[in-house]
Amino acid sequence: METHMYLPDYDGGSIANLMASLARACGSSASPCPPLAELPPARLAAVSNLVLLVVDGLGYNLLAERPGPLAPYLRGHLTSVFPSTTAAAIPTLMTGLPPSRHGLTGWHMWLREVGALLAILPLSARPGAPLAEPLPPRAELPQRLFRHDTLYQSMDRTSYVV
To answer: Would you tell me the crossing angle of helices 15-25 and 86-95 to the nearest 10 degrees?
Structure first.
C-alpha cells in the first residue's frame, strides 16, 4: 500500500488561505495568510451570502473518486494544517491563523492558566486528570485562555457560527 505525505500549503492552498479569502471578501484583513489561490477575495466580495460548510474528514480524494451530489461543485483541493487534527484545524477556521500562530495543536492540552489538562474544543477537563482547583465556568474559559479574536469579529458582515 502506497502512502503519501501532504504538507500544508500555507502559500495559497490551505484552509488558512481559504479563511483569508473569506475574511478579505468581508472587509477584514485580520488573517496574516495570503488568500486562497483558487478563490480570490474579489470573487467572493460581490456575493450577498457566503456559507462555509465544514465536513470534518471529508477529503478531496473521496469526493473525486466517488461522485455524489457534491461532485459537480468540486473546484479544487485544499490542504489542511499541521498537525492535521480537528483540534488544530477548527481554531484555524475560527481565527484564520495556522496552528503555529494560534497555539492549539492537540485534543488534550495542559493549560497553565487554569492548571488543568483540558480537551481543547469542548473546554472540559480530561477524565481522570487531576485538577489543581475547580475550573472556572465554561463561559469564562475562552476569554481567559485565548488571546486571538475570531475572524468573524473583524468582518463587516453579520456572521453566524453553528
So the answer is: 20
- Cα(39)–Cα(36) distance, integer angstroms: 5
Strand partners, 14: 79
- The set of cell numbers assigned to 157 is 458582515
Query: How many residues belong to the chain?
Result: 162
Among candidates 8, 73, 3, which has minimal Cα distance to 36?
8
Q: Which three cell numbers stand for residue 39?
A: 478563490
For 35-113, where are the E strands, in sequence order? Answer: 108-111
Mean pLDDT, residues 129-154 = 86
Mean pLDDT of 33-38: 92
What does the pLDDT look like over 71-110, one tens digit per residue? 888 888 899 999 999 999 999 999 999 999 999 999 999 9
- 123 φ, ψ to 5°? 55, 50
